[in-house]
Design goal:
Layout (H helix, E strand, L loop, with lengths): L26 E5 L4 H12 L3 E5 L3 H6 L6 H10 L4 E4 L6 H10 L4 E6 L6 H6 L1 H22 L4 E7 L13 E2 L4 E2 L22 H21 L3 E6 L1 E3 L11 H11 L3 E4 L6 E6 H13 L5 E5 L6 E3 H12 L5 E4 L15 H6 L9 H19 L1
Parallel strand pairs: 1-2, 1-4, 2-3, 4-5, 5-8, 8-12, 9-11, 10-14
Antiparallel strand pairs: 6-7, 11-13
Helix pairs in contact: 1-9, 4-6, 6-7, 8-10, 8-12, 10-12
């Protein structure tokens, strides 16, 4: 749940754009619309002919401080799309307000993209009730309002690989010079798929709240026959990410490299591996699913074998792009429930949606983050 530019009322339908023939455009509701994936979704949807209602109340600033606020991004969206995008200052935990929003805008509603969340392992432990009510209760409110007022609207949920808890840490990893790696003959070498169990492991409170939301999305698909999907993401990233120490790996790493801020690597000798997917690639996956939706779908999604790196490898690339060394140190203890190795198996999604492909790799992602932000970060120092 992220930022809002100007608060707008939610208890009446919003006057929306019309096509050249005078008909209303199809409508999408995007939660967390000022955040990384939310803002990318808004831009994509407007460009492809949608009006968009953005639900956002800048909880990211509450979670991570003003430097992580997404108000500026929401203002940019409002300025870029003054007719098609409407920012709403709503809390997804407010069931009545969310229900009014869906009731009053049901006629043209085709798509719900739910990206709002409390996204940090560490932060969740400081306020477990806030974490759970945002991630689980908020998702339930959105699902129930969709079911009541537009059950055939596609419901897309940005879940997380943290629903698997620390189960991936049981994998038989080998230590190489700059990373941990699976043997090539291992069943998950191409990436982890949804056959991995989520039971009998440590999740962190964040992982538990997201798992609850994930199961709710699946259940509304199975029980009520609604077109729902859980995209269990690895590291979601891109130039618009307002990275912070507790969330936003590549963005925060590049920011520290540019500004000279100190960066701490938490455990595993910096050899822990993450796959990273650009926000634009993820949103195109959303669009592919919406074009051919199904009930209760679940996919692991990320950079897969084409876009992954260890922390040490990411540091080397960031230093090369920025032309300066990162001031970093190694902490002994990993974050609770943190993965030693995660690469998503993209084959199941590609089997269902073969027209989708990744367009961005690690080098392109980090270069884009640098190019978009270097001027602002340099001024800030």
């Amino acid at each position: 749940m992220c930022s809002n530019g100007r608060a707008r009322t939610s208890d009446r339908s919003v006057t929306r754009s019309t096509s050249g023939e005078g008909e209303k455009l199809p409508l999408a509701i995007v939660t967390g619309s000022g955040g990384l994936i939310g803002s990318e979704s808004v831009s994509y949807l407007v460009e492809t002919g949608y009006d968009v209602l953005g639900v956002d109340n800048d909880m990211r600033a509450y979670f991570f401080g003003e430097s992580a606020s997404t108000r500026p991004q929401t203002r940019r969206l409002e300025e870029a799309h003054p007719r098609e995008f409407h920012a709403l200052d709503l809390d997804i935990r407010d069931a009545d307000a969310i229900d009014r929003l869906f009731r009053d805008n049901a006629s043209n509603l085709e798509l719900v993209i739910h990206t709002a969340a409390q996204p940090s392992h560490d932060w969740a432990a400081t306020e477990p009730l806030t974490d759970f009510t945002v991630n689980a209760n908020g998702t339930l409110n959105l699902l129930e309002s969709t079911r009541r007022h537009k059950p055939d609207a596609t419901f897309i949920f940005t879940s997380t690989n943290k629903v698997y808890g620390d189960r991936p840490n049981d994998l038989p990893l080998r230590e190489l010079a700059t990373r941990l790696e699976l043997p090539e003959q291992h069943q998950y070498y191409r990436g982890i798929d949804t056959t991995m169990s989520i039971d009998l492991c440590l999740h962190s409170l964040f992982g538990a709240s997201k798992a609850a939301a994930d199961l709710l999305v699946q259940e509304y698909g199975r029980y009520f026959g609604m077109p729902t999907v859980c995209f269990r993401g690895g590291c979601l990233t891109g130039p618009n990410h307002a990275g912070a120490q507790l969330h936003g790996f590549l963005s925060y790493l590049m920011r520290c490299t540019v500004t000279g801020e100190s960066y701490t690597v938490f455990g595993y000798g910096g050899k822990q591996v993450r796959d990273n997917i650009h926000a634009a690639d993820l949103v195109r996956a959303f669009a592919a699913f919406h074009a051919k939706p199904r009930a209760a779908a679940v996919y692991n999604i990320g950079g897969g074998r084409d876009s992954n790196c260890s922390v040490l490898e990411a540091i080397e690339i960031s230093e090369r792009i920025a032309g300066r060394e990162l001031n970093w140190s190694l902490g002994d203890a990993p974050r609770v429930g943190d993965h030693r190795w995660w690469i998503s198996d993209l084959d199941p999604f590609l089997a269902d949606y073969p027209e989708w492909q990744l367009e961005f790799g690690i080098e392109e992602i980090l270069q884009g983050i640098f190019d978009r932000n270097v001027e602002a970060w340099s001024v800030a120092t």
